[in-house]
């Protein structure tokens, strides 16, 4: 059996999307699967890259699509990859989705998951379900094995998903529920998140005008 | 004084030309100054997820291309109409590229809003948004996903009023015009 991980973050291997996807890939590899991976940003940059992506999804028994939610849905390059696969892919196979987002609540990825299911439908994939993680930047591209206790539930959810996917089953609902719980309490997320942005602005010397409105015009 | 309307056309080819033209004509008749942007013809790079628009050049993307002018128009329009072929229940990649680059219209901070966490708006201009999704025929699952997406988009962008219209190429253009007119009314646009 073969799995193909397609990561949709512009940050590539330094992304939480890759952290999640790589964990699943390693789990499948431990169960004897052959694995390969690609990054949407790279594959779309050349005609050969696009062909390679199409063929990788056609020879894989399972394609795992892992990406961040931008403005409530997949980033534009991920949608573009989906459009290409819908128009040109010729063979079946199954699809599972891993979605992470910047807001702490996993419900913010709901539209992204709906889009993945419809993509699978329109593309002829057998949809095996998806997992949604909020507060993805708390992982910040680190390996899940190096991310400490905060991701214990995340790893358990992914382990359940790996077992199911390796057996040819869909991701069980309990994995979704486990993955969907907040990594940290909401009020702490807001506190540390706001402190993080102030510190980043201070490092760049821009805190004094962080609320600037460069595009404001008088007449509307 | 004419209010500005911005039409962002996310079509892949010419599938939405008639709907876009009918919408623009409707708005012009009602006194709007209409800027219509065919996004597939614009040079818009992908968002890099670098957050430079928050902490390096607050309010402006660090990448200089057509997205900057589009965002400027977006910020200053009283009405924004986002036209897109419904793509797996969402926006086309052309429209999504433009939207992804508009994270600069938000502040980086987090706050509670409507029971969820959101970023505050950078600008206080009262705006109205109308999403127009185009499908070849009725597709309940795609329509439902599109409505969920636009609801979330509106929750993030926090316009003064918003609505969603779905139009179908296997129906008469008059039906599309009616759906869009009703969407304008629902969003609080007087047409």
What attributes characterize this protein structure?
heterodimer; A: 220 residues; alpha/beta; five-stranded parallel beta sheet; 15% strand; globular; B: 191 residues; two-stranded antiparallel ribbon; 6 helices; 7 strands; 36% helix
Provide a descriptive summary of the structure in words:
The complex is a heterodimer of chains A (220) and B (191). Chain A is an alpha/beta fold and 220 residues long. Chain A contains 8 helices and 5 strands; from the N terminus they run βαβααβαβαβααα. The longest helix of chain A has 18 residues, at 186-203. In chain A, helix 1 crosses helix 6 (152-166) and helix 6 (152-166) packs antiparallel against helix 7 (173-180). A 5-stranded parallel β-sheet of chain A has the order 2-1-3-4-5, sandwiched between helices. Chain B has 191 residues and is α/β, with parallel strands linked by helices. Chain B is built from 6 helices and 7 strands, in the order βαβααβαβββαβα. Chain B has helices at 17-29, 52-55, 66-76, 93-100, 140-157, 173-186, and strands at residues 4-9, 33-38, 79-85, 111-113, 116-118, 128-135, 161-168. Chains A and B meet through helix 4, helix 5 and helix 8 of A and helix 3, helix 4, strand 5 and helix 5 of B.
The level of helicity of chain B is 25-40%
Q: Quaternary status of these chains?
A: heterodimer
Helix content of chain A: 40-55%
For the biggest sheet of chain B, the summary is:
5 strands, parallel
Task: Compute the number of strand runs of chain A.
Answer: 5
How would the blueprint of this fold be written?
The complex is a heterodimer of chains A (220) and B (191).
Chain A lengths: L1 E6 L8 H15 L3 E6 H4 L3 H13 L2 E7 L7 H13 L5 E7 L9 H14 L2 E8 L18 H15 L6 H8 L5 H18 L17
Parallel strand pairs in A: 1-2, 1-3, 3-4, 4-5
Helix pairs in contact in A: 1-6, 6-7
Chain B lengths: L3 E6 L7 H13 L3 E6 L13 H4 L10 H11 L2 E7 L7 H8 L10 E3 L2 E3 L9 E8 L4 H18 L3 E8 L4 H14 L5
Parallel strand pairs in B: 1-2, 1-3, 3-6, 6-7
Antiparallel strand pairs in B: 4-5
């Amino acid at each position: 059996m073969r799995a193909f991980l397609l990561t949709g973050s512009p940050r590539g291997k330094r992304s939480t999307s890759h952290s999640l996807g790589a964990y699943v890939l390693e789990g499948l590899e431990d169960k004897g699967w052959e694995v390969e991976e690609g990054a949407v940003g790279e594959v779309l940059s050349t005609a050969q890259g696009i062909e390679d992506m199409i063929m990788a999804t056609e020879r894989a028994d399972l394609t795992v699509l892992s990406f961040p939610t931008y403005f409530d849905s997949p980033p534009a390059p991920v949608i573009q990859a989906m459009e290409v696969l819908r128009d040109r892919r010729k063979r079946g196979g199954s699809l599972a989705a891993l979605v992470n987002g910047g807001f702490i609540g996993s419900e913010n990825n709901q539209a992204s998951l709906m889009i993945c299911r419809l993509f699978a439908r329109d593309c002829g994939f057998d949809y095996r379900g998806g997992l949604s993680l909020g507060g993805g930047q708390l992982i910040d591209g680190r390996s899940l094995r190096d991310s400490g206790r905060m991701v214990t539930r995340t790893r358990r959810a992914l382990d359940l998903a790996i077992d199911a996917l390796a057996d040819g089953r869909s991701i069980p609902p309990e994995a979704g529920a486990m993955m969907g719980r907040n990594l940290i309490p909401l009020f702490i997320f807001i506190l540390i998140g706001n402190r993080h942005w102030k510190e980043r602005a201070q490092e760049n010397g821009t805190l004094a005008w962080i609320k600037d409105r460069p595009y404001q015009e008088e007449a509307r | 004084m004419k209010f500005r309307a911005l039409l962002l056309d996310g079509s892949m080819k010419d599938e939405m030309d008639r709907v876009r033209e009918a919408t623009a004509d409707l708005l012009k008749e009602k006194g709007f100054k209409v800027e219509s942007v065919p996004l597939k013809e614009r040079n818009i790079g992908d968002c890099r997820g670098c957050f430079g628009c928050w902490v390096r050049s607050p309010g402006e993307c660090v990448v200089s291309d057509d997205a900057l002018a589009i965002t400027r128009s977006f910020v200053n329009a009283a009405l924004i109409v986002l036209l897109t072929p419904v793509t797996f229940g969402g926006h086309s990649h052309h429209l999504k590229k433009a939207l992804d680059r508009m994270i600069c219209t938000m502040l980086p901070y987090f706050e509670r809003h409507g029971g969820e966490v959101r970023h505050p708006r950078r600008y206080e201009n009262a705006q109205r948004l109308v999403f127009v999704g185009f499908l070849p025929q009725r597709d309940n699952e795609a329509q439902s996903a599109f409505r969920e997406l636009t609801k979330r988009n509106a929750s993030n962008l926090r316009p003064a009023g918003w609505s969603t219209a779905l139009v179908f190429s296997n129906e008469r253009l008059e039906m599309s015009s009616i759906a869009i007119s009703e969407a304008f009314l629902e969003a609080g646009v007087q047409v």
